Structures are given as C-alpha cells and as structure tokens.
Amino acid sequence: MKKYTTSAKEGDVQGKWFIADADGAVLGRLASGVAARLRGKHQPLFTPHVDTGDFVIVVNAEKVRLTGNKWVQKEYHHHTGYIGGLKTATAREVLEKRPEELIRHAVKGMLPKNKLGSRLFRKLKVYAGSDHPHQAQNPEPLKL
C-alpha cells in the first residue's frame, strides 16, 4: 500500500476535446463549468499546479443569456494605454461587437492568475456561430 499522495506529472494526462453549446446557457454557469473542465477538476488525478485539463470549444457565443438587468448594468472596461483612455462598454454592446469576448472574459476570471492560468486559457476556443475548425479533433459534447 502506498503511503504517499501521487501528483500528476506534465505528460501524465492527455487533454481530450469537448464542445459546449452556449445557445440559451446562462453566462456564469457556462463559464464555471468550462473553467473547471479546462482546469481538470473533473479528473481523479487533478493536481492544482499541473495542467490536467481538457480542450474546450464553445460555439454559439452570440446566443448566451444573462439574467436580470445585466445586459445594461454590467460594464466591461479596458484601457488604451493613453492618458484618459479608459473605455467602457455594456454587456449588450460587447455582445453586438464581439460576442466571443463575453465568454472569454468570464472564463478567464475563473482561472488562476499565473502562468498556469495563461496556459489553460489557450486551451479555450470560442466561436460566435455554430461553425468551428476543430472537426479533426472529434470533440465530444459537454453537458453543463
């Protein structure tokens, strides 16, 4: 019987590909499920400091839902780098201009804020419509 806890190594887990449909899904619930899958928390070999997660494709980002008055009250900020360059947009404006950014922003906030989080974030692929270029990976449907 082993008397120590095993930790996953970098090459122990090969990430599978999953596809999540955002059509009618609430943004926060979708993002938390996707972030957990990217992180690898669904696997028994989960190790906090090692990438044990899977690749996730999110399609139909333009059909995501927000509850309450968040379409007009929730604001997204970014700075241009120039003096007085703080730009603000509501969730409705972001959805009209770049619908993928809503999901990317929500998922990124749920990942670790370090090099591991950056590496995990690269495994997320978000598309506004139902078409995606990852058919060769044979993604499995992800139920959230």
Could you walk me through the main structural features you see in this protein, from its secondary elements to its overall organization?
- This protein has a domain at 17-66 and 99-131: Ribosomal Protein L13p, Chain: A.
- The strands form two sheets. A four-stranded parallel β-sheet has the order 5-2-1-6, covered by helices on one side. It has a two-stranded antiparallel ribbon with strand order 3-4.
- Helix 1 packs across helix 4 (99-108) and helix 3 packs across helix 4 (99-108).
- It is built from five helices and six strands.
- The longest helix has 13 residues, at 27-39.
- The chain is an alpha/beta fold.
- The mean pLDDT is 95.
- The protein starts with 16 loop residues before the first strand and ends with a strand.
User: What is the CATH topology descriptor of the domain at 17-66 and 99-131?
Assistant: Ribosomal Protein L13p, Chain: A
Task: Give the number of helices.
Answer: 5
Mean pLDDT: 95
CATH architecture annotation name of the domain at 17-66 and 99-131: Alpha-Beta Complex
Question: In what range is the share of β-strand residues?
Answer: 15-25%
Across the major sheet, the strand order is 5-2-1-6
Percentage of residues in helical conformation = 25-40%
| Count of beta strands | 6
Could you give the distance between the termini? 37 Å
For the record, what is the CATH homologous superfamily label of the domain at 17-66 and 99-131?
Answer: Ribosomal protein L13
Main sheet: strands, sense, barrel: 4 strands, parallel
Q: Unreliable segments (pLDDT under 50, ≥5 consecutive)?
A: none
Sheet/helix structural class: alpha/beta
**Coarse morphology:** globular
Q: Rg from C-alpha positions?
A: 17 Å
